[in-house]
Each structure stands twice: as structure tokens, then as C-alpha cells.
RING-type E3 ubiquitin transferase
Amino acid sequence: MSEKRKPLLGFMGKLPSGPALGNSGKTHCPSCMGLFQAPRLLPCLHTVCTTCLEQLEPFSVVDIRGGDSDTSSEGSLFQELKPPGLRPQTGILCPVCDAQVDLPVGGVKALTIDHLAMNDVMLESLCGEGQGLVCDLCSDRDVEKRCQTCKANLCHFCCQAHRRQKKTTYHTVVDLKDLKGYSRIGKAILCPAHPAEELRLFCELCDQPVCRDCVVGAHREHPCDFTSNVIHKHGDSVRELLKNTQPRVEALEKALAQVKETNGALQQRVEAVAADIRTFSEGYLKAIEEHRDKLLKQLEDIRAQQENSLQLQKAQLEQLLADMRTGVEFTEHLLTSGSDLEILITKGVVVERLTKLNQVEYSARPRVNDKICFSPQEKAGRCRGYEVYGAINTKEVDPAKCVLQGKDLHRAREKQTASFTLLCKDAAGESMGRGGDNIQVAVVPKDKKDSPVRTMVQDNKDGTYGVSYTPKEPGIYKVLVCVKEQHVQGSPFTVTVKKRHHSHPGVFHCCTFCSSGGQKTARCACGGTMPGGYLGCGHGHKGHPGRPHWSCCGKFTEKSECTWTGGQSTARSLLRTVAL
């Protein structure tokens, strides 16, 4: 097996234009933000300094994969596989993407070294006149030279010693400033198992780079070849995988762009809706404030109007009272102090005055009351285009003026809902025009006063209330309707509950012959027959009533209650099955 010296792709090759300036994403640690120091490649393909990884807080995980772990590392390349089973492991989280990283047995230092990042750091350091690079031999002084044969960075002292040694006398040594135009100046990658040997071979069986000592040792009889000979095969497989991955990247970028576009549209829509909400709320607030001002003005007008009415009534009552007192005082003085002649002389004037005063009509009750209330849930029309609520009501319901209405007021059927309407009015007999009054309704059987029927009261918000109930048994029921704990006009009253309405089991037809399709055995409750052995009625034949009727009971009204009692009559039992 001989090594074929083929140039590695891009190794020591000049850049097409200008020096290669590594960006911070390739040369700086995402954790400490400084240049990479011994960078390690994580399974998520993020690179972090070794010291930064060691500072992360580890956690315990359970590896159920046995010895096979997808965490690749140079330190784990030569470890023996352990039998499968549960074994405790230590893990960390990637400081970039929070992906879980299962640490190999050797810990952080057993993770794969990112040599590409080290090359980028070296290139960036060269662009800065070698600042940050130290000699690979003494690790003490700044770098000035580089041995192209050993791929080692040397200080001035170590460079002189390198040239004096017999084995390295003829090595090519160049100044760092002469390397600024190169794309790669990578150091030789040494075998972790044999640090003195460079990794130049690749074991196909173990799928890992090896050195010469590995070939004659742990990888004896394994198919191995120089890396320059197998790079094309493995590089092509990686390129093929990259080729299959790139469309997914484009698809993800497109999806991300759509998400961003949707997010932008969402933000714009949210801002537009927020503007609509602000406009609506500002307009609504102005409408509410305007409605509030109208209500307050209306309330002030009501106060002034009722106060004027009370003042006028007060003045009239005070004047009448003064006149009455004057008349009473004068009459009492006349009767107690006047002579008979004096009384007779002034009697006519006194009688006329007192009679006139007694004939003056006046109201003993105030013309207005203080029953002013605010109904916040009552619709008050529109203001500035907005529906507003809240109204001032000065009316007071008068139970004696309230009226009960409805066809089911005094009749009902068992197990059928009966209903009637309560119309509330004020003392003047006018409809209240609003709801909210305290209505109590009770429906009690006459013979079972301890078993009232459940009632429902529906406030129609217009001064009317719908009352419904469902009696379970026929009989006499007493209905009590109260407003503000006072009986309304016509309450209490009685309701006669009859038995449940019986529907017709037969058919409403013109004759049996037509409704039965010509069946001879079909009969009708009207008792009519036809010649030829027909037991039912027919047009113009004996017993036909001459107009449409029910076959079950013979009634002529289509919407009526059936009076058939369900006897065992053959005629009626047959008619129940007759249908068009």
C-alpha cells in the first residue's frame, strides 16, 4: 500500500481575490464571544470552546442505546462497545439551540475537535499580524514563522532551533505575513491514541481516520487506505446528502418567509383592528357621555317640573288654608262674642263664604311623587349611531290598574301549557312601557293547596309579562297574580282545567270509498253505506252527510277535538287504520 500524493481540496490554495477574513460566526465562540479556544463540534453542528462547555451545568440522562451513541468524537473512536442496556450518562444543553448533547465517557474533551474552526481562527489571527497565536513548540512566545512541512507555528527562538536540528534542517519555513492570502493553513491532525503520529489513513470497517500505528495495532487486517484515496468516495456521499438537504433548506426558508409574511400581515391586521376598536370605543364613549348629559338634563327638567307643580299645589293649599282659617276664626268669634242680632245680620255673608270654601276642590295627595328611577338595561335608542341603554322613568305601577289578558285566562287542558298576559299600568291607566317590576304568580289546585303548579313569568321589557303554566291534572285551579305584593285587577280568579285534548285517530275525508282506495270493509263513523257490499260511505249514497268529515267520530270541523271514546265497535276500530 503506497500513499498517492494528491493535493487536498483547497489546502494551501490561494484565494481568487483578496485575503480570507473569517467572520465572527466562524471564529468566535457563541458563548464567550471570544476567539475559539480548543473548539468542540457538537452533534447539532454548533461549535463552542472547550472551556465554555466545561462551565455548563451537566445533568444526568439514561442511555438506552447501549454503546452506540450518535455523539461522534475523536476520544470515543477507540473505545470498546459496552453491552446494550440501561446506563447512566451525563448530558449538557447546547448554548446556541438548547439541543441535548450526550457527553461521551471522556466528557467534554472527548467531543470532536472542530479543526475547520481552528483553521479560521488561525487565518483571522494572521490577518492581525499573528496576534493571539503562540508557538506550537514552546507555547510561550508569539508566532513569527511557520514550518510548511511540519505545519507548525514557530516563534523566532524555536525557528532557529528547528533549522539546527538534522531532521528538520531542510523543512520549508515561511514568514506569517506570506501566508495571508491562503485559504487554509491548518495544522497536522494527530492521532488521539498515538499523539506522535499524524492521521493519514482511513479505516473503512470502523469508518474513522487512523494512523500507521493503528493499522498494525487495533485495526490490523481492517481495510485501510490513505485519506487522499478515499476522500472522493466519502466526499461524494456527503455532497449527495447535501444535495438532498438543500431543497429542504429552501423549502424551510420559503415556509419561514411565509410565516414572517403572515406575521407581518397579522401585525398589520392587529393594528388595524386595534385602530377600529379605539375609534369605536372613543365614539361609544362620546355617545355614552352625550347620553349621560341628556339623562342628567332630563332629570333636572323633571325635578324642575315636579318641583314647580308641588310649589303651585303648596301655594294653592296655603291660600285655601288661610281662607278657611279666616272664615273659621271669624265664625267662631261671631258665635262666641256676637249678640243675637249681630249673628242674624252677618249670617248671610258668613254662610255664603263658608259654603263657597267648602265647595273648593283640592287634592289631599301631592300631585307628583318621588318615584323617579333609572333603568340601566332599558334601550334608549341610538346616539351618534350607537345603541345606548339607560332611561329615566317617573311612572309607578298601580296594581289596581293592571289588566290580565289572554284566551287561556279561564281555561286550560291537563298536561298542556296554558298562558296569559299581564299588562302593567300606572295610576293614570297608561302602559308602563318598561319591565323590571316585581311580579308574583301562583296557580294552586282547589283541592290540593299544598301542591302549587310551577309557573313561568317572562318579562317582555315593554310593560307586559307573559305567564305560563302546565297543569298535570284536570280540576278547578285558583290563580293569584300580584304586583308589589298587591293583587292586580281581576285577581284572584279560577281556571277550569279539562282533560287533555283528544286528536283524531281517523282521516278527514269526503267519503270512505275515496280515502280507503275502494276497500269494501272500510267503514265510517257517519254510518253511511254504498250499494254492492261496501260498508262505508260514498258520494250521494245512503247515510253520507254531504260534506267532508272525520272518519273516527263524524265531526265536520277539521280542527276539532275527537269525541270517539275508543269503544270496541267494529266499524270504528276498522276506521282507525284507514289512510289516504
Summary: Confidence is low (pLDDT under 50) at residues 1-23, 64-85, 568-580.
